[in-house]
Sequence to fold (202 residues):
Amino acid sequence: MIENDNMRRTTEEELYRRFQSGDETAFEELVRLFRGSLARYINTFVNDYREAEDLMIDAFAELAINAKYKEQSSLKTYLFSIGRNITLKHIRKYKSSGYLPIDKVREETEYLSNLPEMTFVAEEQKAQLHTAMRLLKQDYYEVLYLIYFENMSYNDAGRTMKKTAVQVDHLLRRAKSSLKSILEAEEYEKRQGNCARSPASG
Fold:
């Protein structure tokens, strides 16, 4: 796994170096490589995929124009950080609230269900998970997304969110605890509702 991550990072950095040397096709390859995942990440903030794609283009433009990547983190982490900064500025400018409710969750919830700590999430609970994640704070949803959907390390997620790896770990624990509490409360309410609808015995 580490070897694959290193190979991927080497490929990303080589493409970026080629772009800096004037190879425009290398930048086009970077766009193809990251446009989908970056747009989906931005969409967790704005909940409007067309808007997310516009902001994604802005992030790539920032990467191309400023060219400040120093290979201190993976290019993906650096690009996601750019996308996050641009998106938060956009939200502060055009939105009234600090964070937006999440109306959509990616289908790949198996990332969560495969975790030992998250065994309470079974296949048949995906719809329930969808509803529960809409209730999470933005930073809780974001850390879950980066760690489990984008498979980032704690360090990379921290660089993206401007937090330390320790802060990411604590935030992730709180996010999972919050999500679990929501799911368990909904399950309790569901059981209570079923009991109320059951015919009286005797």
